[in-house]
Design a protein that fits this description.
CATH architecture of the largest domain: Sandwich
CATH topology of the largest domain: Immunoglobulin-like
CATH superfamily of the largest domain: Cellobiose dehydrogenase, cytochrome domain
Structural class: mainly beta
Number of strands: 11
Radius of gyration: 19 Å
Strand order of the largest sheet: 7-6-5-4-10-11
Number of domains: 2
CATH class of the largest domain: Mainly Beta
Distance between the termini: 44 Å
Length: 177
């Protein structure tokens, strides 16, 4: 017959191994992650917002696009780079499969990015930001918790600290919020 202390100890060890020292997978506020081609994306739904951390393989700009039809086309693109210790992050729209424009430059568009921050180390740029799930902006894709979306990862050349230079890498995948 199993000893109750042994069963409880085993359960505790398994729980620690599953959850690690960082995040509880049973916590509805825990982060989701995906990686592709040296891009790493973390996200979580928080109320009516999406909190995001993107790390990409460049010391220039990095970007993630949500919900496009093909690569950048029709995607809500959040692009950012570091200038010194300042994170410059902007809300764009995918005009074609490989071009984007600031929402602010498009009729009726506006910037819907908050909580902007970032860092750069070991040849990678990381940007952190929050966007509304549904901003009401014509140029933003309305997102719904539990739904799947096409995602595009993009980055510029090393040192391309701007929003307008050509991209070096572009790849896509999908996630479920």
């Amino acid at each position: 017959m199993l000893n109750l202390k042994y069963v409880l100890f085993t359960f505790l060890v398994i729980l620690i191994l599953i959850t690690g020292c960082n995040e509880n997978p049973f916590d509805p506020n825990s982060w989701n992650t995906t990686s592709k081609d040296d891009f790493n994306l973390k996200w979580r739904v928080s109320g009516s917002n999406l909190e995001v951390e993107l790390k990409g393989p460049s010391t220039g700009w990095v970007a993630v696009g949500f919900g496009g039809s093909y690569l950048m086309h029709d995607a809500n693109i959040i692009i950012g780079y570091l200038s010194g210790s300042s994170a410059n992050i902007r809300d764009d729209f995918g005009i074609t499969s490989n071009t984007h424009e600031s929402d602010s430059n498009l009729q009726g568009g506006q910037q819907n990015v908050s909580d902007k921050s970032g860092s750069e180390s070991s040849g990678k740029t990381e940007i952190r930001f929050t966007i509304p799930l549904d901003s009401g902006d014509l140029w933003d894709v309305a997102l719904t918790d539990g739904q799947s979306y096409n995602i595009v990862f993009i980055c510029g050349e090393d040192g391309a600290d701007n929003f307008t230079s050509d991209y070096r890498t572009i790849t896509n995948t999908s996630i479920t919020l």
